[in-house]
Design brief:
Blueprint: H1 7-15, E1 22-33, E2 36-48, E3 53-57, H2 64-71, E4 79-84, E5 87-88, H3 94-104, E6 105-109, H4 120-130, H5 135-148, H6 164-176, E7 182-186, H7 194-209, E8 213-217, H8 221-224, E9 229-234, E10 237-238
Parallel strand pairs: 3-8, 3-9, 6-7, 7-8
Antiparallel strand pairs: 1-2, 1-4, 4-5, 9-10
């Protein structure tokens, strides 16, 4: 389904990467209420190296999705320090954060978030358009990803014409088309049956083996086994 880049290409990409891709120091997130501050995350200190596959687990309300939103630079309302590829995210303005995220982060969601009015090929083109990639290069990269993911025959279909597993496959292809440094996946198999879920997780494993860093949020012990490290959250705290 997915071809690996050459060893030389992988060596070039990893050689130029920072030794730590993600660094969080004492990150906290809270909401103001009439009774004071209600904390969602407490004193999160975490490093993620390039090429890791990290799983975040914990009960509902533990802060998992909030942590993913901060890592994805969708939520800047936190205290503490967040450094991504040697850039101090906590000190960047909104436009700088958006530009950094567009360049280096791909998202995979439980609900797919495909655009219903666009075909598969057009959905894949959207993140490249946001990054200002020219029309001819966009077309070439979409064609390449369609081929790599065995979706050439579905390029002109709309999301409603696809199964849930096929829609999630498009969502992953859309996340990787920009060759991100980091993929963030929030319950990526939550809406899939077991066979589809296994296929998606094996795809993540192959992407990770090819050099892509992945952080996934999941409730599934089986999905967690695809990663090389598990972080457990409870009531906003990282458990030792």
């Amino acid at each position: 389904m997915l071809s690996r880049p050459s060893q030389d290409a992988h060596a070039r990409s990893t050689t130029s990467s920072p030794t730590t891709l993600v660094s969080l120091r004492n990150v906290e997130k809270s909401h103001r209420t009439s009774g004071g501050a209600t904390y969602v995350l407490r004193r999160i200190t975490l490093d993620v190296a390039p090429g890791e596959f990290v799983t975040v687990m914990g009960p509902s309300g533990a802060g998992k999705s909030t942590l993913l939103s901060i890592l994805g630079m969708l939520d800047a309302d936190f205290t503490g320090e967040y450094v991504f590829r040697d850039r101090p995210v906590h000190a960047l303005n909104q436009e700088q954060r958006r530009a950094l995220a567009r360049e280096h982060i791909g998202f995979v969601f439980q609900q797919y978030h495909l655009l219903d009015e666009l075909t598969v090929a057009e959905n894949l083109s959207v993140p490249l358009d946001y990054r200002g990639v020219g029309k001819s290069e966009r077309a070439a990269r979409v064609a390449d990803v369609l081929d790599r993911f065995n979706m050439v025959g579905k390029k002109d279909l709309y999301p409603r014409q696809l199964s849930g597993g096929q829609q999630q496959l498009v969502g992953i292809a859309r996340a990787v088309i920009g060759e991100p440094s980091l993929i963030l996946a929030d319950e990526p198999t939550g809406n899939l049956h077991s066979a589809q879920a296994r296929e998606i997780m094996e795809l993540f494993a192959r992407l990770n083996a090819a050099g892509t860093t992945i952080v996934q949020v999941t409730h599934s012990d089986e999905n967690a086994r695809y990663g090389n490290r598990t972080i457990n959250l409870k009531d906003g705290w990282m458990e030792p």
